[in-house]
């Protein structure tokens, strides 16, 4: 009963898991972005002062620093892999939708009133839709030399598995270019991501108890 309650709580909010048994967001973001900051994710924004430039506009290679909220007491960090427009980016991060899971090039949407990326919604791979809750952020930390670095699983960093990965063939496709392709047919295409954005904006909290229980069962099946 207690285990079921814990799973139910986890389904209500996307939150990193404490502990060293699974890959955490911090070492993943550090390796992929090259930003040499350490400690809990919630400290990265202040640590970056006088070391890295900070701002509120997305750029490829920048680290998006999330504020702690609810059970996500240590905050979160993700790396921008592609800027789609002023309100949409693709990100790479770990330990978000499922403990230890790596999600590469999934959608994040600015839902702030001012358009300053202070509030975002993030793709939830197990349910193939945008996350139900909005997440406050500090802003973006810009590395000195923006470059996305490959992440290779390392048992020393904790267990990990890839839930989503997008194969981007061009950093700056033309207007007639084909949409990006995902590496696995079972994973959602970018076109589905965009429909999910409209769904999330229209009904940000329309999740029934049945939906939540279904999320719990999906997450449990991946453990």
From TrEMBL:
It holds the Pfam family CHAP. InterPro entries: CHAP_dom, Papain-like_cys_pep_sf. Gene3D superfamilies: endopeptidase domain like (from Nostoc punctiforme). Residues 1-121 form the Peptidase C51 domain. Residues 167-186 are annotated as: Disordered. Residues 1-19 form the signal peptide. Transmembrane segments: none annotated. It comes from the Bacteria. The keyword Signal applies. Keywords: Signal. Coiled coil: none annotated. This is Amidase. It comes from Sphingobium chungbukense.
């Amino acid at each position: 009963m207690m285990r079921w309650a814990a799973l139910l709580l986890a389904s209500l909010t996307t939150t990193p898991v404490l502990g060293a048994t699974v890959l955490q967001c911090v070492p993943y973001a550090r390796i992929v972005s090259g930003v040499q900051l350490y400690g809990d994710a919630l400290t990265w924004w202040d640590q970056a002062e006088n070391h890295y430039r900070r701002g509120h506009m997305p750029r490829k290679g920048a680290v998006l620093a999330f504020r702690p909220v609810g059970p996500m007491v240590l905050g979160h960090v993700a790396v921008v892999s592609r800027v789609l427009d002023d309100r949409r980016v693709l990100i790479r991060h770990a330990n978000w939708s499922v403990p230890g899971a790596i999600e590469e090039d999934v959608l994040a949407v600015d839902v702030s009133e001012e358009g300053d990326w202070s509030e975002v919604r993030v793709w939830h791979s197990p349910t193939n839709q945008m996350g139900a809750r909005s997440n406050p952020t500090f802003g973006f930390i810009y590395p000195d030399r923006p470059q996305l670095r490959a992440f290779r699983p390392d048992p020393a960093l904790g267990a990990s598995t890839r839930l989503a990965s997008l194969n981007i063939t061009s950093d700056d496709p033309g207007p007639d270019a084909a949409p990006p392709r995902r590496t696995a047919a079972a994973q959602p295409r970018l076109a589905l991501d965009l429909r999910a954005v409209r769904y999330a904006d229209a009904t940000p909290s329309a999740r029934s108890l049945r939906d939540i229980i279904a999320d719990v069962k999906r997450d449990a099946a991946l453990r």
